[in-house]
Amino acid sequence: MPNLRLARQTLLRLVAALAAIVGAVQLVRLLLLPAIQSVFHPGDAMTSVLRRTGIFLFAILAYWAYVRLFEKRRASELRIAPLPIALGALSGSLLIAIALLLMFAFGAYDLGAYRGLQSGLLGVAGLIVIAAVLEEVIYRCILFRILEGAIGTLWALGLQSLVFALMHIANIEDRASTQEIVTTVVAGTLVGAFWTLVFVHTRNLWAVAANHAAWNYTIILAGVPLSGIEGWRSLAPLATTCRDPACGPTWLTGGVFGPEDSLVTTAMVAASVLAMLYWAGRRHRLLAAGAALPINPTGAPHA
After folding, report:
1. How far apart are CA 95 and CA 190, in angstroms?
2. 39: CB partners within 8 A, 6+ apart
């Protein structure tokens, strides 16, 4: 009976949290934004800014309200922690930058030209930050954190990371071979585990979102595909091309998904995951199944 009660409580929390986020996003899209458009008639560019900003603010507010009203605790994972945020951004950018430099060194890519910084990059940066924050709210603050309270850190880490990877297959499923899809699932699961462990160590949304956003933006600046998305490559300061006309070998370039699926990146992320797991164990941050939700102002698990 205790297990059934815990399962029911976990499912209820997941449904309530996700409903709060989805409801907030739809409120902006279907009610608030149309009302602003009908009254103020903003142009397309301003409408886009209002949509993104509104979704960002209302999603954070919805998560805060869920935590306060449903879990009845302080949402300490939303605290502003400048040093962890700065370190998160620096480490995320540095890890993928090293992987990219190795790919260039191994001959996966050629640098065609340097185009300089373009004005569109600022808007892309805003979009990348918002997308990273929203993904971290869904996958780390909601899915991982709630599952962790029920089945423990390790099981929640694996399950949530697999879901994270599977959700990214849609970016390439119409262009990728079966082998590339399998590679994406494996590599995406490891990247998801990496970001989850950043959250385990910091217990801070903004620190893991900074790591995620900096990782993604570094890929964009390098002029290579981001998670299978090609649309931003024309804005990159670096005009990067494949040295091989067929853009291979895929184990080195990552194929259609890009450098995140490269064996170079996968090896580096896997090593980082193992090191972070070891350190989390040494610092007693790995919770057993049925543990209380591990959020407090210092970032350490409750006793």
Report:
1. 14
2. none
Residue partners of 53: CB distance under 8 A and separation at least 6? 130
In contact, 207 and 76? CB cutoff 8 Å: no
Query: Other C-beta atoms within 10 Å of 25: how many?
Result: 17
Contact between 213 and 128 under an 8 Å Cβ cutoff? The reply is yes
The Cβ of residue 219 has, within 10 Å, a number of other Cβ atoms equal to 27
Please check whether residue 247 is in contact with residue 257, taking contact to mean a CB–CB distance below 8 angstroms: no
What gap in Å lies between CA 117 and CA 140, rounded to an integer?
32
CA distance 183 to 227: 12
CA angle 97, 91, 82 (to 5 degrees): 140
Q: How far apart are CA 190 and CA 240, in angstroms?
A: 26
**Which residues 6+ apart lie within 8 Å of 179 measured at CB?**
250
Structural domain spans, the chain:
1-74, 81-282
pLDDT by 10s per residue, the chain, length 303: 568 888 899 999 999 999 999 999 999 999 999 999 999 999 998 999 999 999 999 999 999 999 999 999 999 999 999 999 999 999 999 999 999 999 999 888 888 788 887 888 988 999 999 999 999 999 999 999 999 999 999 999 999 999 999 999 988 878 888 888 999 999 999 999 999 999 999 999 999 999 999 999 999 999 999 998 888 888 899 888 876 655 668 889 898 899 999 999 999 999 999 999 999 999 999 998 876 544 444 444 433
Q: Residue 303's CB: how many other CB atoms inside 10 A? A: 6
Q: What element of type H or E holds 200?
A: helix 178-202
Helix (H, G, I), strand (E, B) or coil at 79: coil
